[in-house]
Specification:
mainly alpha, Serine Threonine Protein Phosphatase 5, Tetratricopeptide repeat
Length: 291
């Protein structure tokens, strides 16, 4: 994703200079595989500076393709994934308000696809039971879209804990992540387990928090990732270890992250590089977290 090759430029010119929606859809369809490979290449990037500078332009490029073919579900998934990853990796630690905007964009791209399913659309604003029914038509094949949509939404809620209008949708995110666990708990190295570990660790017990169950989820995620997906350590440390005031575990998890090579998981060097930077930031703030 560092370079847009000449034939890609030709495709872009075709998409944005001709009004025929059919032609645009065909053209976008021809580039789907290229775009997917581009995302894979970005995940493999270990240089944070290169990734941070490349992502915004590539996200806008994806948005252009989305406008040319708004019904293309693969493009919508890439946008959901891209905005979520960009906000998590490069924005939320320095500008929470901007991160909220990016997470909202990621969530909305995902929801726009999910709402094409009538069952989901009709039950979207229902109560817990009705919302659970909204997912009845989805299968394991839908796990990536549901996970990344819920991931964006959950991160938005995590940054908006003082906003009742945002928090009221937490049950929807929980339901979507529970769907992911039921269908494919190993997806994205146990990402749904990381989510529930964080939620259960940070919520007060009177609101459903459960540190013991949170630890079970984190341990499961680490086992699924064989200790190579370092982001599990970050959320384990910043939520469970902090909430239980276990400074020893906090330091151990973060030092383990710093000592690990980003190459232990080559297909996700970027996530591991981001995790190492987050580990350093958390250790610098250690005195703020522990009495």
């Amino acid at each position: 994703m560092r370079t847009i090759y000449p034939f890609i430029l030709t495709i872009i010119f075709t998409v944005f200079n001709y009004g025929c929606s059919t032609l645009s859809s065909i053209t976008v369809g021809m580039t789907e595989e290229i775009l997917s490979h581009g995302v894979d290449a970005m995940f493999e990037e270990g240089d944070l500076d290169v990734a941070e500078k490349s992502l915004p332009a590539n996200l806008k490029l994806l948005e252009g393709f989305h406008r040319a073919d708004p019904n293309n579900q693969k493009i919508s998934l890439l946008l959901t994934q891209g905005y979520t990853g960009y906000a998590l990796g490069f924005v939320e630690d320095v500008d929470a308000e901007r991160a909220k905007i990016l997470y909202s964009k990621g969530r909305d791209f995902g929801l726009s696809v999910l709402k094409k399913n009538n069952q989901f659309k009709n039950n979207f604003d229902g109560n817990l039971s009705e919302f659970k029914n909204s997912l009845i038509d989805f299968t394991k094949e839908d796990v990536p879209l549901i996970f990344w949509t819920a991931n964006a939404w959950g991160n938005l809620i995590n940054l908006s804990l003082n906003d009742p209008e945002v928090i009221k949708d937490l049950y929807k995110v929980n339901t979507m992540m529970q769907f992911v666990i039921q269908q494919d708990e190993s997806y994205f190295y146990g990402g749904a387990h990381i989510y529930f570990g964080t939620i259960l660790a940070t919520q007060p017990r009177v609101l459903g928090g459960n540190p013991d169950l949170a630890k079970t989820h984190f341990d499961k995620a680490i086992a699924i990732g064989k200790g190579k997906f370092l982001l599990s350590n970050i959320y384990y440390a910043k939520s469970y270890a902090v909430q239980t005031q276990n400074s020893g575990l906090f330091i151990s998890l973060l030092n383990k992250t710093l000592e690990a090579s980003i190459d232990i998981l080559p297909q996700h060097r970027l996530v591991n590089a981001i995790s190492k930077r987050k580990a350093k930031l958390l250790l610098e703030k250690q005195t703020e977290y522990f009495e």
